[in-house]
Design brief:
The structure holds two protein chains of two kinds. Chain A is mostly helical. Chain A folds into two domains: 85 residues, no CATH class; 65 residues, Orthogonal Bundle (Arc Repressor Mutant, subunit A). Chain A contains eight helices and one strand, in the order H-H-H-H-E-H-H-H-H. The N and C termini of chain A lie far apart (64 Å). Chain B contains nine helices and one strand. The C terminus of chain B is likely disordered. The chains are: A mainly alpha, B mainly alpha. At the A-B interface, helix 1, helix 2, helix 3, strand 1 and helix 6 of A face helix 1, strand 1 and helix 2 of B.
């Protein structure tokens, strides 16, 4: 199979670079460095992993957690990263949801729910892959996802008034 | 619209948000990746660029990768080594031959008499071992005194029987000599020692007794043994003290 070529590496960067940065941002405040190192590590591999995207997410996750530990306690770094002022999403007039409000709502989610939603929605990972990343079961990850989505929807959309019949 | 449909619509709207893509320097990244894929000298590149040498996998300096790898393989290697040792020992235990049983026939001591003679075949042991001492000539009916079917008749026979184990312990030659001697000769050997003198017994009186050694010997050769004689009593139990004869 051989090492990964520049074309494939460039395609991975274009398709998953931004999502990987967003994913790494859940833990550390230097997500760009972590993603860059992960992509370079992928280029150094003599054999391309069977699932390069999943491999990248795992490496980014480990790197981000290690980076957060190297500069302080994990929870403090997560909180600092989650509340960093940089926008997480690009704003577009056609968006149905406000990007900054969505980012703020994401920051307020529990870490496991936020990680699951980011990996699922923007990383495109399956629940099995996310469960493997989070070292949990698929059903648990699915529950985190549903709970996170419900919490986001509650915060980002006005709840529909229900009338008793 | 059902709640599930609402949730799916919200999920689609959320997924439509695009993460910021301008945070990675694509050109620099591709350059570093190409350099790493060719030379794999990431740490030097990172040092030249002034970026921290952070391992993408574990977030550690590259100089620590080798040590981390060593630590990672230490326990599996130790486990493999111990497994190999255990397997080798198992093979050795299983393949070890059965202990070799060596049968040695040890002649059982003869029950024919104190000196090891058999009753039916004098001069040969029970299991056909080496020849034992010859049967004594002074036993009753030509047999050892005290053997089944025979018993000492006279005090002299009983005394010789009592002394036989001592002879054997002291000297096999003495035991051999006593077994072929006559009963009178046996007494000639024993009594001077009891008399407290060495050499040939003479006609001197024995202790306070006025009788001579020869009188005493002749008396013991005729004196019937006491009842309840045991094959191995002491001489003093068999006979009254010298000089106290009744």
């Amino acid at each position: 199979m051989g090492s990964i070529g520049p074309k494939r590496l460039g395609r991975l960067l274009e398709e998953h670079g931004a999502a990987l940065v967003l994913y790494a941002q859940q833990w550390c405040d230097v997500p760009e460095d972590v993603v860059q190192e992960a992509l370079i590590a992928l280029a150094r591999q003599a054999e391309v992993p069977e699932n390069p995207v999943g491999w990248l997410y795992r490496v980014v996750r480990n790197g981000a957690i290690s980076a957060s530990r190297s500069t302080g306690r994990r929870q403090r770094r997560e909180a600092a990263a989650a509340h960093r002022g940089e926008p997480w999403f690009e704003s577009s007039p056609g968006d149905r949801l406000d990007a900054s409000a969505a980012a703020e709502a994401l920051r307020q989610l529990p870490a496991v729910q936020r990680e699951t939603i980011v990996a699922r929605l923007w990383g495109g990972l399956s629940f099995d892959e996310i469960a493997e990343l989070a070292e949990s079961s698929t059903s648990t990850v699915h529950r985190w996802y549903q709970q996170g989505l419900a919490a986001l929807r509650e915060r980002l959309t006005a709840p529909c008034p229900r009338t008793k019949s | 619209m059902s709640q599930d449909e609402e949730l799916k619509a919200f999920e689609a709207a959320l997924a439509a948000l695009v993460p910021r893509g301008d945070r990675l320097d694509r050109d620099r990244l591709m350059f570093l990746a190409g350099q790493a894929s060719v030379g794999g000298i990431l740490s030097e590149t990172a040092a030249a660029e002034g970026t921290p040498g952070v391992s993408p996998v574990r977030g550690k300096a590259h100089g620590q990768d080798a040590r981390a790898t060593t630590r990672r393989w230490a326990w599996p290697a130790a486990f493999s080594a111990m497994t190999a040792v255990a397997a080798t020992l198992l093979v050795i235990v299983v393949a070890r031959p059965e202990p070799q049983v060596i049968v040695r026939t040890i002649p059982a001591p003869s029950q024919g008499g104190p000196l090891g003679n058999t009753e039916g075949d004098p001069g040969r042991s029970v299991r056909g071992g080496p020849r034992a001492e010859p049967r004594p000539s002074w036993g009753p009916e030509g047999r050892w005194p005290g053997t089944p079917g025979s018993s000492p008749v006279t005090a002299a026979e009983a005394m010789a029987l009592a002394m036989a184990p001592l002879w054997r312990v002291r000297s096999p030659e003495l035991a051999q000599r006593m077994s072929t001697a006559t009963l009178a000769e046996v007494l000639d050997t024993i009594l001077p020692q009891a008399q407290g003198s060495a050499g040939t017994p003479d006609a001197r009186p024995m202790g306070n007794d006025k009788s001579s050694y020869h009188d005493l010997r002749d008396e013991w050769l005729k004196k019937p043994v006491r009842r309840g004689f045991s094959p191995r009593p002491s001489v003093l139990e068999l006979f009254p003290p010298l000089g106290a004869r009744s």
